């Protein structure tokens, strides 16, 4: 997942996330264009038609972190320098091939003061040099919002993977924000958004994505007011690919999991689902994270000191609340073997060995799974998983899903 600040970049260096954008500004000139100091008195009455415009007005605050730049009319930029005020740290940028504009190579930081100075050569017969400068501050984190999102740009995901945004501020104008995000598929499937509360917005089609399709997400939240005085700072296009179709079905009655790819059964393997005391959720769940090894501590899921395993192998997250499909090397040999009895605390266990090595059932499934693959659990005595517990909106009827859209 990604965020526009360097400290928060992934964008969705974390999930995500990232995403870029800016607070909209009216185009305006910075300080008045002026001739260089070497102009002679005899030319002082002559005015060039060339004009430099710095998008962030001198002395302004709330400037864009994404679209701040320099343009020139009837002239050609010859030199643009941008620095972080007070430190002199240079901000890399590039003048366009035709010399008409300049922009930073990377998005700016929020809540930071910058200085720009620019020079250009006029295209008129005199070819005079003009100059402009601006000192401004970018929009602050307090007055802006960002959304971390998944999937990331350029990734390949399973057919169950929704587009999911989590915003860092509560959104009161949901229609304005949802209108700033469009998700389309090369398959032609209709994609609809659904709000889970005031900070999460997911998108999906009615049925699973078509295998092999390309999905495009256009984020245009530049200047969108999501709450009173709080504006978006993201503007980006993200594309990802839907891989092969893999849906695995866990049958708690038979303690087996059948793995189906593109409509054909790959393998049926024994599992150990949740015990009678801690049953596994029913429903359609999406793999949202893959970890070769991870620590699992029962205290994080309010089960006191039931377990603390530092190196659970081949773990694949199915819910936010802590349901995983994972390898199990500590299985009590006094219990019936895998495939005969559920003994877990709600997870789905596969036979494995310590160290995540070896030719095991868990390793095979891990190696053959990608984020976005679907795992369906049926015949469990527990309730169905909540649609917002993980990326599991498929458990919501389509009519209810569309009712949660604001556009």
UniProtKB/TrEMBL annotation:
Q: Which residues form the active site?
A: 326 (proton donor/acceptor), 347 (nucleophile)
- Transmembrane portions of the chain: none
What's an example GO cellular component term for this entry?
A: extracellular region
Per the database record, which ranges form the L,D-TPase catalytic domain?
A: 246-378
What keywords were assigned to this record? Acyltransferase, Cell membrane, Cell shape, Cell wall biogenesis/degradation, Lipoprotein, Membrane, Palmitate, Peptidoglycan synthesis, Signal, Transferase
Family annotation (InterPro entries): Big_10, LD-transpeptidase, LD_TPept_cat_dom, Transpep_catalytic_dom
| Pfam families the UniProt entry points to | Big_10 (PF17964), YkuD (PF03734)
Does Endoplasmic reticulum count among this protein's keywords? Answer: no
Q: Which PROSITE patterns match?
A: LD_TPASE, PROKAR_LIPOPROTEIN
Q: Which Gene3D superfamilies match?
A: 2.60.40.3710, 2.60.40.3780, L,D-transpeptidase catalytic domain-like (2.40.440.10)
Q: In which pathway does it act?
A: Glycan biosynthesis; Cell wall biogenesis; peptidoglycan biosynthesis
The protein, known as: L,D-transpeptidase
């Amino acid at each position: 997942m990604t965020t526009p600040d360097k400290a928060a970049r992934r964008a969705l260096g974390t999930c995500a996330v990232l995403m870029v954008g800016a607070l909209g500004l009216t185009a305006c000139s910075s300080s008045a264009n002026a001739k260089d100091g070497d102009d002679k008195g005899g030319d002082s009455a002559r005015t060039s038609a060339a004009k430099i415009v710095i998008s962030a007005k001198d002395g302004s605050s709330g400037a864009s972190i994404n679209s701040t730049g320099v343009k020139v009319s009837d002239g050609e930029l010859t030199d643009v320098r941008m620095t972080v005020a007070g430190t002199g740290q240079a901000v890399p940028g590039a003048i366009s091939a035709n010399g008409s504009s300049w922009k930073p190579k990377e998005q700016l930081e929020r809540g930071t003061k910058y200085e720009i100075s620019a020079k250009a050569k006029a295209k008129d017969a005199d070819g005079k040099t003009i100059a402009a400068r601006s000192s401004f501050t970018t929009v602050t984190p307090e007055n802006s919002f960002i959304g971390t999102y998944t999937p990331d740009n350029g990734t390949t995901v399973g057919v169950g993977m929704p587009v999911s945004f989590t915003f860092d501020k509560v959104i009161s104008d949901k229609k304005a924000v949802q209108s700033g995000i469009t998700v389309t598929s090369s398959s032609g499937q209709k994609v609809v958004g659904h709000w889970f509360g005031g900070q999460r917005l997911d998108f999906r089609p009615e049925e699973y994505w078509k295998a092999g399709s390309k999905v495009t997400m256009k984020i245009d939240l530049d200047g969108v007011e999501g709450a009173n005085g709080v504006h978006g700072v993201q503007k980006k296009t993200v594309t990802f690919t839907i891989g092969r179709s893999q849906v695995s079905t866990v049958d708690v009655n038979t303690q087996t999991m059948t793995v189906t790819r593109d409509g054909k059964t790959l393998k049926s393997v024994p599992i150990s689902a949740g015990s009678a005391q801690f049953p596994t959720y029913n429903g359609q769940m999406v793999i949202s994270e893959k970890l070769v090894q991870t620590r699992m501590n029962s205290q994080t899921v309010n089960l006191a000191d039931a377990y603390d395993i530092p190196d659970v192998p081949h773990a694949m997250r199915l819910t936010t609340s802590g349901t995983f499909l994972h390898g199990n090397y500590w299985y009590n040999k006094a219990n019936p073997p895998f495939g005969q009895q559920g003994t877990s605390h709600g997870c789905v266990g596969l036979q494995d060995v310590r160290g995540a090595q070896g030719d095991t059932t868990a390793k095979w499934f891990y190696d053959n799974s990608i984020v976005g693959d679907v795992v369906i659990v049926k015949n469990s005595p527990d309730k169905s998983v909540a649609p917002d517990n993980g990326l599991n909106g498929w458990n919501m009827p389509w009519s209810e899903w569309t009712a949660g859209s604001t556009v």
